[in-house]
Amino acid sequence: MRSKERLSIATLLLAMFVIAGCATPVKEQEQSGFLGDYSRLQKVDDDDAYFYTSDKLGNYSTFMFDPVVLLYKQDVEKPQYTEEEMDEITRHVNTEASNALTDAGYTVVSNAAPGVGRFRIGITKIDASTGPANIIIYTKITGVGLGGIATEAELVDSLTGEQITAGVRWGSGSRVLRAGFTKTGDPKILINKWVKAFIKRLDKAHGK
Fold first, then answer.
1. DSSP secondary structure string, 140-190?
2. Is 204 helix (H, G, I), strand (E, B) or coil?
3. Which of 13, 35, 58, 128 has minimal CB crowding within 10 Å?
4. What are the backbone dihedrals phi and psi of residue 60, each rounded to the nearest 5 degrees, phi first?
5. pLDDT at 49
6. Taking the domains of the chain in order of start, what are their residue ranges?
7. d(CA 167, CA 190)
8. Quick one: DSSP state of residue 113?
9. 24-205 has which CATH code?
10. Residue 155 to residues 18, 129, 169, 202: CA-CA distances in angstroms?
């Protein structure tokens, strides 16, 4: 390898690690007021989350979804996402959760009824993935380029509004899984992870 090529690679890597040093993960957000009740949430020591789960969760096996609410406003002058990309993320939340519930043997419906749990989900923060940095091993392991998301969500009885379970979560994407070139990759990775975690808690409540 010629000296100029070595210098170019070294310069590129140095720049990447300088950027990595400036990278900050998605942090805990202030309460938005979206949830019906925050008072029973408890911090999870080994996770970036607060949770509350009623002992009534096991009584619900049929669910419906409200449209995801964007509680996060982008910088008007320097938006990270287009409207289409924001819509893509909000649709992904409910689609992923709905498909996971169905695959796990639960039922998803469109209307409120006795015994139906209603999901209310709000997004309080989104950071875009930086595609090129997310496919290079040198930057992937440092966290540079990782996007992330923060959410508030609750499951309530569709008729009474009683809070059955609630959670506040935040985090950045995976340093192992590849988000690809899209800016929405890391938020989607986290959404998928959190949906799987909820299904496990739901299964446990049902004695599975």
1. HTTTTT--EEEEEEEEEETTT--EEEEEEEEEE--SSS---SSTTHHHHHH
2. helix
3. 13
4. -115, 125
5. 93
6. 24-205
7. 14
8. -
9. 3.40.50
10. 42, 29, 15, 11
